[in-house]
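Changelog excerpt

This revision adds worked examples to the README so contributors can see how folded entries look when concatenated. The first example is reproduced verbatim below.
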Amino acid sequence: MDDFPIDKIQISGAALASLLHRASSSAGDIHGYLFGHAAVSSLNSLSDHPTPTATATILAATITSFLSLPSHIPLPPPPNAADSTHLLGWFSARRKTPLRPSLKETTATSSLTSSASLAFAPQNSTLSLPPSLFLIISTPFQDQVIHTHEYKVFQFKGNTFEPKSLNIVNIGPSFRSQYDSFSPNVNFPMMDCQLRAPNAMAEDEIRETLADKKNHLNNQKQLDTCADGFEIGRLRTLMGSEAAYTAELEGLYDKMLAKIEGLSRSVEETNAKVLEQETHNMRLRHRVAGLE
């Protein structure tokens, strides 16, 4: 087997979300196998120098699925993977522990990578790559509302764990092709189109009252407040291949977080007022019952 470093490790957003959900919804710690594919590609660096530059070769691994079971159950022999997927490594999800491999996990990873029968050849290459990836998932030592999970990925190479960066593939123009075939399954409800007047011409001649106009303006202001920052013109830029795609999406995401934060603050204030009112009502009941 070749001791070749993996230059890029990536996982789809759906696979990572499913893995985090499995870790959080389980009764205890879990572990399991990571499946996916690997490929060797050439990276040509652009240069104005007349002398041709050397072509760099990178090895990229993509995690697409996983298999999990409780940590108190030993890992069974890896199942036979499909032709398009291979065993890339394994993961361990625990709670409130440091993001570093334990002695037991080091032994398990060493045993997994030393098995010649589990090695596979990446695409566009004749290398023999062992399942050397190890992903650790943990929770913060102090319970938090937003930041609920932490994770770190390693490559076991040369009897040591080398930290690697994990790229999440969930946004970008190249990912939009997965949504091209989407079609909604829920039909719009039938709308009542009855006319208030005998014919359409008479309907158009009916003038709105001053109260109706004020009500319409008030409703429009509330809608404009909710849609602040999400105008049609700005959303239209996300449909093209402009370079500002990611920046626009991040801007919309920041505005959405700000709105959620304001809503959370309003809910907290409302809950405080409700609790104060309940305490006041309890005191009145005690006073009527003669308990005070």
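The second example, added in the same revision:
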Amino acid sequence: MRNIVTRKSCFLALLLLLLLTSQFASAAQKTLSKEHPCKRFVLYYHDILFDGEDVANATSATIANETKLGNFNFGKLVVFNDPMTRDNHLLSPVVARAQGFYFYDMKSDYNSWFAYTLVFNSTEHKGTLNIMGADIVAAQTRDLSVVGGTGDFFMARGIATIETDTIQGAKYFRLKMDIKLYDCY
């Protein structure tokens, strides 16, 4: 009789453990929905390329000149510390800084590859978002990957959809960035 009670107790304990484990596993799974990001905001990226004269206003500089392979800046490498604003006005309050680099990586068309960190340090947000990917300049919109973050954006993942808002020669361009985060903690 005692052996039957012990077996029933072990069975009930095992069943309880199995139920608790399955509850935790199902709670840890997240459902990602393209239409419903957990966080979304639009920012404008302003890049002013240093041309050898405008030290005070430049936010980026070429550190490796383009090669002679094609007519599309192939091999050109640019580092930047660009202001990010909520609207398309360069003199609007800066809500973040984009710090990183891009290089032109195609000989037959304008195409670049970006890797940068958005650094937020305001009363609204503190932390970083890490973004990287191909920028096919001729496309209307391009998606770059949000691959991580810190602070308010701890371990964030998502998509930054960019589109060219304006280009003023080789010196200034502005991108509209629609940032959608799907993995938020």
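Reviewer comment on example two: The chain has a mean pLDDT of 86. The radius of gyration is 24 Å.
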